Amino acid sequence: MADTMIRGMAANKQVRFFACNSTDTVEKARITHHTSPVVTNALGRLLTGGVLMGAMCKNDTDKLTLRIQCQGPISGMLVTADANGHVKGYVSEPEVMLPANDVAKAVDLGVLSVIKDIGLKEPYVGDTHLVSGEIAEDLTYYFATSEQVPSSVGLGVLMNKDNTVRQAGGFIIQLMPFCDEKVIEKLEQRLAEVNSVTAFLDEGLTPEQILEKLLGDMDLVINDTVPTQFYCNCSRERVSKALIAVGRKELNEMIQEAKPVELKCHFCNSAYEFSTEDLKELLRKSK
Q: What is the pTM of this model?
C-alpha cells in the first residue's frame, strides 16, 4: 500500500487531525542513507513528523524544516517537507549502533528548531529544548510552548528482523481554542488507551481506520488524502546555481586545481560531477 497522509476535523471543528502511513518513505530513507536500526527509527519518526507538520502549510510554495542538534551519538538530523506530502531528510551520523528502540539515548539532550518558510522576507524559527529525545514528545512540547496549541503527537517505526522497515506512521491531534471540556476529557481518555501507532499499523489499520478508532464517534470528517513520498528536488541546475553562489574567487581556485569537482546532495546522496570546462562555463555565467 502506497504511503498516504490524511487531514480533517472532528467534534464540530473543535479538533483537527493529521495522520499518515510513512512505511515506504522511511524505508527509502534507510536505503538512501544506509542507516542503522536505531537511526532508521529516529530519522523515520522525524520524517513522519515532517509529513504531518508539512500538511499544516497553507500554500504549495511553503516549506517546513525540522532540525535537531543534539548531544547523543546521532549528533543531528534535518528534515524538510511541504504541503503536498513530499519529505526528505538526513542524519549526521547514520551508523550509530544502539538497540533499535533506544532513540532517546541516540538523540539525548539538544535543541529542536522548527523553521517555516512561508514567502516572507525571513522564515519563522521556533526553538525548543528536547524534553526526551523520543521525537513525538519533543514535538508535543514544541506545539505547547512555541505555538500554544495543545497537541497529541504519536510517531513510530517498527523494524523487521532483517532491519528493513516493517511499519512507520503517526498522527497529530490538536485542540482548537474553543474546544469544549467534555471533548477534551473524552479525547484524553481515548488517547490513554493507545498502545502505539505501530501496533495499529501492524494490525493492518490505515490512517483513516486509526483516526476512526480515536475520533470515530466525534463527527469525524476527513477533508483530503495526500500521497506521501521521500522526494528530493535536487538537480544539476540547482547544484550549478549553488556553485555560482560560492563566488568567483572560489570557482577560480577550483579551476586552477584542474580536477573534476564532485558535489553530493545531503538529502538523496545523488552525485554531480563538474569538469574544469564546466567550472569555466559557470565562472562566465557568474559575471
A: 0.90
Q: What is 75-120 written as a DSSP string? A: -EEEEEE-TTSEEEEEES-TT--S-TT-HHHHH-SEEEEEEEE-SS
Helix (H, G, I), strand (E, B) or coil at 74: coil
Residue range 107-156, pLDDT digits in tens: 999 999 999 987 777 888 999 999 999 999 999 999 999 989 889 999 99
Indicate the SS3 state at residue 68: strand
**Residue 219, Ramachandran bin (φ over 0: left; ψ between -120 and 50: alpha; else beta):** left
Task: Give the span between the Cα atoms of 110 and 91, in whole angstroms.
Answer: 15
Distance CA 243, CA 257 (A): 16
Size (the chain), residues? 287
Q: Inform me whether the pLDDT recorded for 287 exceeds 80.
A: no
CA atoms within 13 Å, Cβ hemisphere of 102: 10
